[in-house]
Design goal:
The protein contains 17 helices and 21 strands. It is of the alpha+beta class. The strands form 6 sheets. A 6-stranded mixed β-sheet has the order 10-11-12-15-16-21, with helices on both faces. Strands 1, 13, 14, 17 and 18 form a 5-stranded antiparallel β-sheet that branches. A hairpin with a 6-residue loop joins strand 13 and strand 14. Helix 10 crosses helix 15 and helix 12 packs antiparallel against helix 13.
Length: 552
């Protein structure tokens, strides 16, 4: 009886407590707005120089939101097109990736059959002017804003191209740029279908289903690999619908929990599946996030397929885009999402953020949960793959060649000198091509500091500090010469990995994004491991063993 009375008192007083807290918050909000208005008004009247109220206001808003999480952001009217790109995968523009290097913003990769490509813009072209606006000193985002605009509107570019003295003028008609969710799909050797899914924008699920059904109708498929590596996510409903292709109707794929009841939602599969039996593998890495984690996590929780690769990013936060006054918007984190095992994969707890904290990823194991077959999985660490493959680390010289755009620039040179190449799956870097690349790098006076050289410099510094240097100088000189001799061979010692990136860049000049993917498939360690599992190439039924687990 006493317990019942206590519960009744709690129920009676809880609304009063909640109302009181809400009233207190409303007072604090009103007070803060009044103070802010006064600060801005007094600055406008008294500050020694003219102020820009709009810029100060945006700075204040951004500083406030920065105290929350990286995904809650203010969207001014000028960035509405970027929101369309995030949600719909489309925007009005010229259709090209741009990059800053050597003091200018350059064309990095034109999209096939879009305005930049059709106008003959090439990777490496420096954009020096957009509609009469000088781009010198402007960032990539600032130049991007100049290039974007309403479809069918015109934009005039002035381009500086390496090897040509005169500035080139190009007038392009902007188009609605729709980036493909699926840049490539194919049936690989052994009858395993492969689908590369780069994002989760509108119609991603339909496109994936159509690609899968087409391959299944034309082939006796032995398995399917969905590649989510580097896929940062997108629309939640598209993720649910993709899971639905392989999981029965009325299964809870994901649910969200937020502050208000409107944010608490369950997302079930709504349709009859297309295939609940085909062996399935999902490729993931540390850049697979959000919707990618819903797909890979729910497939893992249902024991519907194996996850291969590296631990995923760990973004379990859901954002809504809310319209605001003066055609502005705000993207707000409104809830967390949970996958079928009831785990949330969110890695970083932003609620514990303070001015003195540096939030980092946590490597300790979180709470345990279980999949449908009783396999143990963990919360709060992204999705841990069923088959973990350590990422391949680039050598120091390869990383510097890439960072200093040596490979990119050589691919541009190669493209200008060769009208065509073999198909992506057939093109190879010959000795002649590689030796030409080495000469190109040497002519550019490419320099870098190896890790061994850094350690050697520290050794010399320490020897001098401890008074040993004069006694061991002769030995240090020999060591330094040996390091220089070995470093001179780095381009050949690391040829295999350099060649792979060089091949991808050159192929991309002729066959664009699709060609780049094709050129890397043969030596793709993670893909090959997934195919081995699906085909049970090692003589054991590894696929079934992995899904049964050892925890039952």
């Amino acid at each position: 009886m006493n317990k019942f009375r206590f519960l009744l008192l709690v129920l009676l007083f809880f609304p009063i407590l909640s109302f009181s807290q809400e009233k207190q918050n409303n007072f604090e909000i009103s007070k803060s707005i009044d103070i802010y208005n006064n600060v801005l008004r007094f600055l406008n009247m008294n500050y020694v120089d003219e102020i820009n109220p709009a810029e100060l206001n945006e700075t204040a808003i951004n500083a406030m939101l920065k105290e929350l999480d990286p995904y809650t952001v203010f969207i001014p009217e000028s960035e509405i097109e970027d929101v369309r790109l995030l949600t719909m995968g489309e925007y009005g523009g010229i259709g090209s990736v741009i990059q800053f290097y050597d003091g200018n913003v350059h064309i990095y990769e034109p999209y096939e059959n879009f305005p930049a490509h059709k106008a003959g813009l090439l990777p490496g072209d420096a954009i020096v002017e957009v509609n009469g606006v000088d781009t010198k000193g402007k960032t990539v985002s600032e130049v991007s804003e100049l290039l974007k605009g309403q479809p069918n509107s015109q934009v005039t570019l002035k381009i500086s191209r390496e090897g040509e003295k005169d500035v080139i003028t190009k007038t392009l008609t902007r188009e609605k740029i729709k980036i493909d969710n699926i840049p490539y799909y194919a049936v690989l050797d052994g009858g395993v279908a492969y689908i590369s899914l780069s994002q989760f924008t509108k119609d991603a699920a339909k496109e994936l289903k159509d690609a899968f059904l087409k391959m299944r109708s034309e082939n006796d498929l032995k398995g399917l690999v969905i590649d989510l590596r580097g896929n940062g996510g997108g629309l939640l409903n598209e993720a649910v619908d993709i899971v639905n292709i392989f999981v029965p109707k009325d299964k809870l794929v994901v649910y969200t929990k937020g502050k208000t009841p409107e944010q608490n939602r369950n997302y079930y599969t709504k349709h009859e599946p297309e295939d609940v039996d085909i062996p399935l593998a999902i490729l993931v890495n540390e850049a697979s996030a959000s919707a990618s984690e819903i797909v890979s996590g729910s497939i893992q929780d249902f024991d519907r397929g194996v996850i291969v690769g590296q631990r995923t990013f760990g973004k379990g936060l859901v954002q809504n885009i809310l319209p605001m006054s003066y055609n502005t918007q705000m993207k707000v984190t409104v809830s967390k999402y949970y996958i079928p095992s009831k785990r949330c994969i969110q890695e970083i707890d932003y609620s514990k953020k303070s001015k003195n904290d540096t939030l980092t990823k946590n490597d300790t194991l979180g709470p345990q949960f279980k999949t449908a077959n009783g396999r143990i999985v963990y919360e709060g660490h992204g999705i841990q793959p069923d088959v973990k493959i350590e990422p391949e680390m680039l050598s120091t010289i390869t990383a510097h060649l890439y960072a200093q755009n040596m490979i990119f620039k050589y691919a541009n040179k190669f493209y200008k000198e060769h009208k065509s190449i073999a198909k992506p799956e057939e093109f190879e870097i010959t000795d002649e091509i590689y030796n030409d690349f080495v000469k190109f790098v040497e002519d550019k006076e490419f320099k870098y500091t190896s890790e061994s050289e850094k350690d050697f410099e520290e050794l010399v510094k320490t020897a001098k500090m401890e008074g040993y240097y004069d006694n061991i100088k002769s030995y240090l000189d020999v060591l330094e010469n040996e390091l220089k001799n070995h470093k001179g061979n780095d381009l050949f010692i690391n040829r295999e990995e350099i060649e792979e990136i060089l091949k991808m860049e050159i192929v991309g000049r002729y066959y664009f994004q699709k060609g780049k993917i094709i050129s890397t498939l043969e030596n793709d360690k993670e893909l090959n491991r997934a195919i081995e599992i699906l085909l049970n190439s090692n003589g054991e039924n590894e696929y079934e063993t992995l899904l049964r687990g050892i925890n039952n």
